[in-house]
Q: What sequence folds into this?
């Protein structure tokens, strides 16, 4: 006999309530794999995570090691070419993955924690407290984040990975908190919260076991969104030289490429791979978020496949879920 | 007719025998209107309501939507703080909001909600819901005890065999089964008072009777005091010993169910009874048709709140609010029509 | 009009918060802010600049933090942001004033174009599902995941280095003196094209995806089906019913994402060495020109707030509910 039921069950927040689907295949977090977009995204993300973990051991060269092959394009010895001092770019890329992911995930974790704390509190307490916390979140949303990050980071005595992550988290929590507040507000008035209270549940148990599990999907999607924001911000900071340029991440590679005139010399191998890695990671995260979005809002599921099938039968799936049948004759007459 | 004999005979027994479990005295709730323009204004949802719940008795609270009957239930469950008035549990005035004292109160007074689709969290199994209820109110239960209690609770609400329901999620159950789970959750606390807020109105007509009979059975078995809130005056007659009718936040009539429903005293109750479909009187429209709508509770009508809709409205009704007046057979009606009787009896005395 | 009034109060509060944040950030960091800055320069700072720094922080005389705060506000109202180190002794205000028109035109115009095009494309894709246009979704998400500046680098590599049709950097041809004559304006437009296209290409996907999702959600509403059943023209239903309702969240999204987008476009300016505010910020960062950075931050924040107010006005015009509320 199982003792406690798990709380991480699949949650589907539709308009009419939250209905976990069961009996149609998997259950729990694995449901996400039923979504093709999310699966592709998770695979790409997994690749980068592995790279971040074992990067140092599989990199062919020491990323800082100067060699005699200067400014070479891709060769058998250096798959992605070398810099103007003969450093191997592929090794820099592989070793730099860890910095990117660690800062991105750390920043997103801290930002998500702040947004859950502020968003759920605001939604749950209501009244003056809500007004104040919402105002705080909106102020942080409207103030342009990147310039704020730049002026904070450039004044810190040393801007290492952790510091940068914390600064990014400090400026990037507001979006998630706004969405969580709105959702908590609607959950708080639901009967099951009232019923739990009438049954004698304590306040923190209601928040942690009745409300929070219903927010899982939204928290996850906010987390992923913040990872994207954090990765982009951190790479931008490295690129313009605000943060330390001695530790490797993809932004540092671009920083050195830019400051050594890689563009003018046509050394495309110096800046193209790093950008592609950023784009691949970003796309992967976006795809995961699409998966979560479609999971939460079933209307968004691309009806591409169905629409194609319908069209082959001359039915047009144009408006919502109302397929419109057009007879060929009628169509001709219309035009 | 044989079916109806049960409640009728019960109602005939004087209610004073059984101890009062929960009592409301002049209970009032005003909700402040939010926004800049609403400053200082309030929705007068419940106004000076008196209620008495006795052990082993069912009191029905009848009224249309917006009459404040659900608010009364939430006030009695102490989910909202009352604006004015008192709540007495076993004769002791109690006002609790949070913490241990709130839990102690919950152990005595439990509530069942209207919509069983909304009142059970979709992410929790039946086992979780019932386990929490037991764990909150009975600390230090051993594992075996817990298992025994769990199946006991489910059996009590006729969900047999218990094992089949324990691991189910709410969406895997029918409406009636969900409401039974909600009742089992309330029973987990071993309460003395059960507040049932329209427990059957969201269910299919065919299974309403089953749930009502279950509540009746539980009342007999556990000697519960039940507040049965409904907009269906016919079910009040079937199920309740006493019936209290509310209109626009105020009690307009109260008395034993049989006479309130068969011989309504207050014009509003007459309206309610005549609008309920009755198989005995299928033909013939009412001679005094219903008109108008319930009033705004922000600016309630002056005097009697029912006067704009009342076919018998007099000048006095527009000015003065009627007090609770005796209307014969131990019944009370808040209507000036009974003022003369009252004065006469005063003169006689 | 309560809606607009509330929003206005909100912007005042936000402006106050940004300005106060700007004041406190250097003071909250450990140690004497001026000393730590001087240390970071490692002796490269002239005595004049050091003096200016002390004056800016109000540390040249013995004052309380409160007095410093008041002085700071007083200076702000006189448009005095202190002296720039990079362009010493030019006041920061002047440096910013020279660069702000460039940014306003480049970022403003391209963001607006991107919003309009992206929204229209989003309506179309959301409305006609299951066509080739659906393949724009993954492409779009790929582009929205690319940092703006990297796309700028690629654009320069392709269109200015490998195939030189556009200039690689600058805001106008160095042979001209900024004025309003036709040659100069043409030169400025020509220099602005590549950065503008970069900004549009990298930001359009976001609007497109957001609008597509809203259109899909809205188009399954009953009122859209009813409008269709009434026999209204496809175009009328699409724009008058679906898009009209779907655009509201996109406009509030526009307002809220502006701060984020502006950050990205500033870096685009850096890549193109475009003489706008982003490039000034970059110069400030690379020479650790602290007053300049602060001034730029304030100006950017204020511009975003003003843009937000316009978005709110548009929202109020489009959504009848905000008008009735008051």
A:
């Amino acid at each position: 006999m199982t003792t406690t039921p798990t709380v991480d069950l699949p949650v589907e927040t539709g308009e009419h309530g939250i209905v976990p689907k069961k009996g149609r295949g998997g259950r729990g977090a694995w449901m996400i794999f039923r979504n093709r977009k999310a699966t592709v995204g998770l695979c790409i993300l997994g690749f980068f995570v592995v790279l971040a973990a074992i990067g140092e051991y599989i990199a062919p060269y020491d990323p800082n090691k100067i060699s005699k092959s200067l400014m070479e394009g891709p060769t058998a010895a250096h798959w992605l070419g070398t810099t103007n001092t003969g450093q191997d770019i592929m090794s820099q890329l592989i070793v730099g993955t860890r910095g990117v992911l660690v800062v991105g995930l750390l920043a997103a974790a801290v930002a998500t924690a702040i947004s859950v704390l502020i968003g759920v509190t605001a939604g749950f307490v209501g009244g003056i407290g809500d007004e104040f916390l919402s105002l705080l979140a909106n102020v942080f949303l409207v103030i342009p984040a990147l310039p704020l990050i730049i002026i904070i980071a450039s004044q810190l005595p040393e801007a290492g990975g952790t510091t940068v992550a914390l600064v990014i988290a400090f400026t990037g929590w507001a979006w998630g908190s706004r969405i969580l507040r709105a959702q908590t507000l609607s959950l708080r008035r639901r009967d099951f919260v009232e019923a739990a209270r009438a049954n004698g549940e304590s306040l923190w148990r209601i928040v942690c076991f009745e409300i929070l599990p219903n927010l899982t999907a939204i928290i996850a999607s906010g987390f992923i969104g913040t990872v994207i924001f954090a990765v982009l911000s951190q790479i931008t900071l490295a690129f313009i030289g605000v943060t330390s340029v001695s530790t490797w991440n993809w932004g540092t590679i671009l920083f050195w490429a830019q400051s050594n005139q890689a563009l003018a010399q046509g050394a495309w191998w110096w800046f193209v791979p790093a950008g592609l890695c950023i784009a691949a990671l970003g796309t992967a995260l976006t795809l995961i978020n699409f998966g979560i979005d479609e999971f939460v809002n079933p209307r968004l599921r691309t009806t591409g496949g169905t629409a194609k099938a319908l069209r082959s039968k001359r039915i047009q799936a144009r408006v919502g879920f109302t397929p419109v049948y057009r007879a060929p004759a009628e169509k001709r007459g219309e035009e | 007719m044989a079916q109806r004999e049960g409640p009728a005979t019960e109602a005939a027994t004087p209610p004073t025998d059984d101890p009062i479990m929960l009592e409301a005295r002049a209970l009032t709730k005003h909700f402040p209107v939010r926004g800049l323009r609403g400053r200082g204004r309030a929705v007068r949802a419940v106004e000076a309501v008196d209620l008495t719940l006795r052990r082993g008795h069912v009191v029905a609270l009848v009224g249309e939507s917006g009459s404040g009957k659900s608010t009364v239930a939430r006030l009695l469950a102490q989910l909202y703080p009352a604006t004015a008035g008192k709540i007495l549990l076993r004769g002791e005035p109690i006002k609790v909001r949070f913490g241990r004292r709130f839990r102690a109160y919950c152990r005595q007074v439990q509530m069942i909600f209207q919509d069983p689709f909304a009142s059970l969290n979709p992410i929790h199994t039946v086992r979780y819901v019932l386990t929490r209820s037991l764990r909150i109110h009975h600390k230090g239960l051993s594992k075996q005890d817990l298992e025994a209690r769990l199946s006991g609770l489910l059996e009590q609400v006729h969900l047999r065999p218990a094992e089949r329901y324990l691991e189910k999620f709410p969406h895997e159950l029918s409406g009636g089964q969900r409401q039974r789970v909600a009742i089992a959750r309330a029973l987990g606390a071993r309460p003395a008072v059960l507040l049932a807020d329209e427990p059957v109105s969201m269910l299919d007509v065919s299974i309403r009777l089953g749930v009502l009979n279950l509540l009746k059975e539980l009342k007999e078995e556990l000697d519960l005091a039940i507040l049965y809130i409904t907009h269906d005056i016919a079910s009040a007659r079937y199920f309740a010993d006493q019936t209290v009718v509310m209109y626009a936040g105020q009690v307009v009539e109260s008395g034993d169910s049989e006479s309130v429903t068969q011989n309504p005293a207050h014009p509003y109750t007459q309206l309610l009874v005549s609008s309920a479909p009755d198989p005995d009187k299928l033909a013939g429209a009412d001679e005094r048709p219903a008109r108008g709508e319930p009033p705004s509770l922000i600016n309630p009508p002056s005097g009697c709140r029912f006067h704009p809709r009342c076919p018998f409205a007099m000048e006095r009704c527009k000015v003065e609010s009627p007090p609770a007046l005796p209307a014969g057979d131990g019944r009370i009606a808040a209507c000036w029509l009974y003022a003369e009787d009252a004065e006469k009896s005063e003169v006689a005395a | 009009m309560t809606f607009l009034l509330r929003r206005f109060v909100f912007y005042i509060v936000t402006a106050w918060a940004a300005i106060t944040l700007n004041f406190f950030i250097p003071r909250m960091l450990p140690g004497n802010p001026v000393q730590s800055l001087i240390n970071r320069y490692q002796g490269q700072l002239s005595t004049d600049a050091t003096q200016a720094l002390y004056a800016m922080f109000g540390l040249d005389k013995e004052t309380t933090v409160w007095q410093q705060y008041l002085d700071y506000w007083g200076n702000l109202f006189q448009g005095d942001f202190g002296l720039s180190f990079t362009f010493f002794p030019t006041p920061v205000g002047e440096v910013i004033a020279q660069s702000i028109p460039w940014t306003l035109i480049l970022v403003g115009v391209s963001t607006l174009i991107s919003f309009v095009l992206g929204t229209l494309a989003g309506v179309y894709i959301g409305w006609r599902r299951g066509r080739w246009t659906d393949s724009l979704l993954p492409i779009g998400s790929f582009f929205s995941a690319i940092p703006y500046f990297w796309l700028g680098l690629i654009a320069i590599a392709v269109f200015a280095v490998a195939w030189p049709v556009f200039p690689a950097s600058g805001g106008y041809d160095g042979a001209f003196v900024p004025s309003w004559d036709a040659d100069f304006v043409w030169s400025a437009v020509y220099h602005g094209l590549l950065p503008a296209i970069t900004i549009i290409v990298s930001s359009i996907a976001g609007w497109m995806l957001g609008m597509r999702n809203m259109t899909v959600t809205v188009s399954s509403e009953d009122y859209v089906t009813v409008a269709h059943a009434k026999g209204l023209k496809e175009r009328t239903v699409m724009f008058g019913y679906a898009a009209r309702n779907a655009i509201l969240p996109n406009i509030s999204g526009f307002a809220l994402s502006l701060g984020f987008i502006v950050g990205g476009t500033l870096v685009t300016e850096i890549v193109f060495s475009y003489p706008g505010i982003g490039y000034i910020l970059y110069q400030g960062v690379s020479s650790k020109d602290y007053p300049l950075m602060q001034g730029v931050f304030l100006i950017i924040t204020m511009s975003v707030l003003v843009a937000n107010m316009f978005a709110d006005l548009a929202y109020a015009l489009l959504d009848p509910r905000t008008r009735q509320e008051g």
